[in-house]
User: Fold this.
Amino acid sequence: MKKSVLMALISCVGISMSAPLLAQSGDAERGQSISGVCMACHGPDGNSFNPEWPSLAGQSAQYTYQQLLDYKEGRRKDPLMTDQAKPLSDQDMRDLAAFYATQIPTPGMGMDPALLDLGRQVYLGGNSATGLTACSACHGPNGAGDRAAVYPAVGSQHAMYNIAQLEHYRDGTRITDTRNIMPGIAQKMSDEEIRAVAEYMAHILPRFPN
Ligand code: HEC
Ligand code: HEC
Assistant:
């Protein structure tokens, strides 16, 4: 008797532990079918044509879903994106995120190729003088990120967008990072290092499923 109660308890725990994982999976095909409204800014395949609008192709679904939720619930604010996220249901966000994760990234737009060498140095090696960690430690040597750890892909992203994000982490206006990793990193960076590393990230491929 006691044993069967215990078994029932164990199976309940098993179910409740697997439920959140199941709920995270999205339907990429449905995501594509509702992505028409996103296309104007993020491109039909998640590669955007405007350097101020981020590409989403090849990004981890978990990260994309989290960002959509952050816009919808007001933790991340943007005059263009907030209104886009508001009407989305939880399933819409999961499906859109699953769709963009399957798309192939194309090279991002840079701004100043003269900064590439400094950018490569910072991205792969950090800066020992200021204690800046190498970006590649989390975002991967080719910018693919780390899906298991939910470190986003940054390779082949437009430089102008990434400069804005690093500035937002540095001045505290982007508060989406619940682990509080990026604000401390950005605070150690000079304006030149930010521009340089963004230039480098725009040029590295693949920004790919890993
Ligand atoms: C009118 C242009 C526009 C439309 C339409 C639009 N977006 Fe965006 N999106 C933006 C801009 C601009 C940003 C960057 C905002 C910022 O700096 O936070 C952005 C950011 C994002 C991000 C964050 C990317 C990252 O790397 O952190 C995601 C995810 C996203 N959009 C998904 C979508 C989806 C899904 C749709 C369709 C439902 C959509 N967007 C429609 C302009 C748009
Ligand atoms: C210890 C791990 C770690 C290191 C090291 C790290 N990052 Fe990040 N980075 C993250 C995480 C986690 C996020 C997502 C935070 C969030 O949800 O806002 C992120 C987000 C970003 C974003 C925003 C991406 C987007 O699509 O909006 C950029 C840009 C970025 N990092 C650049 C860098 C650069 C440049 C460096 C090196 C100077 C660096 N990161 C080092 C963990 C790291």
Remarks:
- The pocket of heme C (ligand 1) is lined by residues 37-38, 40-42, 52-54, 56, 64, 67-68, 76, 78, 80-81, 84, 96, 164 (CB under 6 Å).
